[in-house]
Amino acid sequence: MNTSRFDIALKLGLDAKYDKRFSDAEIHFREALGIAPNDPEATSLLGLTLSTTSRAREGISLLERAVQLDPQRATLRLNLAEGLEASGDLARAMGVLHAVLESDPASLDAWVRAGDIAERQGDLPGAIEAWNRAHDAHPGATIPIARLARTELGRGKTAEAMLILDTLLKQYPGDAEILDLWCQGLTALQQWAPLEQTASKWCGVERSNPKAWRHLACAQFELGRPLDAANSWQNAMALSPPTAHAFAALAGCYLHALDHERAGEALRRAAAIDPELPEVLSKVALLHLYHGRFSEAVDAARRCLARAPGEPTALKVLARILREEVTDAEFANIATAAQREDLPLDDRIAAAFAAAQVLDARDDFDEAFAACEYAQALALERDRLEGRRYDRAHAEARVSRLIALSPAGFDAAKSLVDAAARPIFIVGLPRSGTTLIEAVLGAHSKVFACGERPAMRQILHAYLELDRAGAVPDEATLAKWREEYFRTLPATGDAACVTDKHPRNLEAVGLIAQLFPDARVLIVRRNPVETGLSIFRQEFSKYWDFAHRLADIGHFYGGCARLAAHWQERHPALVTTIQYEDFVADFERSARALVASCGLEWEPACLDYARSPRAIATFSGVEVRGPIADMRRADRYRDYLAPLVAALEDAGVDLESGALRR
After folding, report:
1. Architecture of 417-609 per CATH?
2. Are 372 and 356 in contact (CB under 8 A)?
3. pLDDT at position 412, please?
4. pLDDT in tens, 53-83
5. How does DSSP assign 387-430, residue by residue?
6. Does the pLDDT at position 1 exceed 80?
7. What's the CATH number of domain 3-139, 1.25.40.10, 1.10.10.10, 2.40.30.170, 3.30.420.40?
């Protein structure tokens, strides 16, 4: 036998098999058998290769022949068991493993594989016993104990799994399988900050592992940084074959970042791979909703629900668009999803709010409010699990500090002004009418409507961090922040103005006055009881921690009223207050005044804003494309609103206008 040629062929075959190039592996193993036709190892490896393909019968025959050629070699029997398992013959595979264990009761590979097969057979106790036997025989081996941890995670026993994994991580801090399981456990516990820390460190050490990047993307997304998550997803996708699931997840990041163009491109690429994947269809439905293509949105949502009846985004799209026209079968799916304890809390919360919307549209107000209370109870449970809560003392201190940091009459250096489009900040409580105001301005040919941008929130955070350190921003820092703000905007073309309607930019008006002396700030105010009820009835981001109790909403409203009154007094040239009820009562006059207050010439298109093709990614996206209306609902829920009214009165808020009483 030509030993050198045989060894080379065998090695090349093993390399190809490891890389899952099975056709190449077959060629090399057949070459080895051509040199040594009765070699048991080459026969077994060729059989194992064929058993993973559609030629399993031929492969099993070769694996059995290899055992006949050398009955005493345990590895050949283990290969036979692996081949039988790959071909789906689990019972015979287990029989072969038992034979191996009779002759070698301490065989690590046999016990581990026996546990794997038992798990596939649904025999979980048998699997756990096998992995425990493997661990007892080989205490230093990570595979069996890692299998036990994975099983505990699968059974929902996360705490038990994390105890096992904590020990393993201390012994093997860089083991990829253990890190993957640890990250899965952190995800199950919704511990997003530790997940980001672990995954980030893992990515730094092992940049070529797509699992590490996926875990990092998950953490960044849950921590409210969707663009960072999108970058991590792209890193993961560059390291593994593209899938529709991956493109759908990437699209989800871009949807949350309000980058609808890139979200649409990711969804097109996902649909090219699997156009009927529910998570693709649900996001397609959402994108259609944002662009006002309601019939297409409903069609995509229903196609999604035909394959995944409880998909929360699709249920939410149907509820928003169809409202009382949702079919009884569709409403039953919504109500069932809200109650399913096996679903993630996020999904149940979305379904419960969707049920509330349908019930409200059907004038079943008692049941609608009960559905809202249930949804908010689930949201409070999520807050508890993730370590969040609305802290009234902290909120009051924050408002007081923001007021103290805004001296009267301060203007930024005019040298900061350049040729960039002038920003118009539309601020106020969510559900106060900010979407309508932006829609009117966004229909103007010289205005680029940007929606809710996160940049100013990030700049305010940096500003307050400096303040906590006892420092103030110098002119260079202000210039850098201003540059960062404009850099995060999409391409605005020749627009003279850009709108930014993040409601919580109300906190940043003092800083806006320093950064953008030529800006406009439009504070939108609406009846506070109507506003508070509307907040309670909607599914907000989990970081809006005040939104889950009516009393907390009233308290938060009071802080916003304090800020609004202060900004009006301190920056009268910058700030314009819009009372929503007055605006819609005389819409054309109000729209003309709004456009003029922003330094723009009047354009009739501003009255026909509903026809604009731009995306509107807010709760009001459906309503704002319909006829103008002053939607009042508080009277229908009067019996439930005492905590909200009491909190507003305690905060000194006028119950009609929402202004702070002097």
Report:
1. 3-Layer(aba) Sandwich (3.40)
2. yes
3. 45
4. 778 889 999 999 999 999 989 889 898 998 9
5. T----HHHHHHHHHHHHHT--TT----GGG--SSPEEEEEEEST
6. no
7. 1.25.40.10
